[in-house]
Amino acid sequence: MSENQYDTCVIGAGPAGLAVARALAERELPYTHIERHTGPGGLWDIDNPGSPMYESAHFISSRTLSGFGGYPMPDHFADYPPHRQILSYLTSFAEAYGLRDRIEFGTEVRDVEKNHDGTWTVTRADGRASVHGQVVVCTGSQWHPNIPDLPGDFTGEIRHTVTYRGSDELRGKRVLVVGAGNSGLDIACDAARSADHAAISMRRGYWFIPKHLFGRPVDTIADGGPHLPMWLQQAVFGGLLRLVNGDPRRLGLQKPDHKLFETHPAINSMLIHHLQHGDVTAKPAIARTEGRTVHFADGTRDDFDLILLATGYLHRVPAAQKYFGDEQHPDLYLSAFSREHDGLFGVGFVETNSGAYQLFDSQAQLIASFVQDTQDGRPTAERFARMIRSDRPDLTGGLKFVDSPRHTGYVHSEAFVKYLNKVASGMGWRTAGRPPRTASVRPEAVAS
Ligand SMILES: Cc1cc2nc3c(=O)[nH]c(=O)nc-3n(C[C@H](O)[C@H](O)[C@H](O)COP(=O)(O)OP(=O)(O)OC[C@H]3O[C@@H](n4cnc5c(N)ncnc54)[C@H](O)[C@@H]3O)c2cc1C
Q1: CB 50 within 8 A of CB 162
Q2: Torsion angles phi and psi, residue 155, rounded to 5
Q3: Model-level pTM greater than 0.90?
Q4: Integer CA distances (angstroms), 382 to 7, 20, 289, 356, 419, in order
Q5: DSSP secondary structure letter of residue 398
Q6: How far is the C-alpha of 267 from the C-alpha of 63, rounded, in Å?
Q7: pLDDT of 72-93, one tens digit each?
Q8: Residues at CB less than 6 angstroms from ligand 1
């Protein structure tokens, strides 16, 4: 039997898996879709066991720029929608394109195995197996916590934020949040309001970008303005941030050791507010711990009951790790195509500085077009297969990202989109999904 008699297996029904399913369905390509939870939406369903979602979470990219191609978020959504709105958007997306009924819910994939004839066997936790021509792994990259060693013998509680759900957990406690990713910043603000005492430890200074500037979501200003070279964007927006936030050292923060945009953006308007009001204290890196006392790199110390590690995630793929290699950053062409294993793809692994869904959609469209052209024996398929193996474009957009695990393989979204579009147009492929054929169930009917 030849490979093209087999369908494509999509694993995971979060935003990435839904984008892939739609791209395949749009081309009427056969596929099997497997999800271990009881519904679509991925980590945005706070009831999906193991999800890192917490009650105060909102999108950090604006709704205007965050929807899938062909299916924008509705106008009545908040500028930065809360997690329940995002879940309702994803659910309605699955319904609008008829994807939901095709998902095997409550089914965990335990193992993915490459066969000698180039096909793939996918084995479920209950032992059932199926054979596929291609596998698209969309199992998410924020489920497996990265837990650093804390020097010393802290006798309070230490937890990663993957288990954090809401501020009730902080009441009556002295809380130290470690890490200034967007979850860390949100949770430090929860602690500022709910804990007995709150501090946030950051190993470097960051550029804190407010969610709104001039009354508009900040990403829409950057997106709608004239296209400036990167050095000028850094100078103009950096100057603006210095004007808005003042000298960060006044608030106990460190001065950034990098230029604007050279780390994942810290988009948060509230941390500065709480620092200004004394509700939370900024601390540098932890030097060591001793009982309930934490000693910091600047020689100061403070006592805590709970250390919450907002220290990020490993990009693990337990069901297929041996094919994805590096747990921190799988080496995928355009962050989606396995360079070594034909027929293996991953969506949801791109690390970038913009909303992810349009990128997931573009990657999904490319995967589906590649599968289609391969099955139809078109020359574009062979041309693209060669690019998967040998093309290594510079997608940094000229930025020198800081040296940290998160920023390994980090791409500048503008450079990434530009390159995806160039590749797709060279192949005659599209990079965005189309609106649904039938009148859709919009999220306004589902939640507000
Ligand atoms: C607090 C927070 C804020 C964020 N803000 C933004 C934002 O503003 N904009 C943005 O674009 N992104 C944001 N993100 C990034 C986030 O990663 C994406 O929004 C998105 O959820 C990732 O989609 P995904 O489909 O790759 O993974 P997930 O949403 O993690 O979905 C993976 C799915 O795979 C399923 N699964 C896993 N393993 C298996 C298995 N073995 N078998 C079967 N099913 C499996 C899971 O149950 C899950 O449903 C944010 C993330 C967090 C945590």
Answers
A1: yes
A2: -100, -5
A3: yes
A4: 19, 21, 56, 28, 19
A5: T
A6: 14
A7: 999 999 999 999 999 999 999 9
A8: 11-17, 34-37, 42-44, 48, 52, 57, 59-61, 66, 108-109, 138-140, 142, 182-183, 319, 348, 355-357
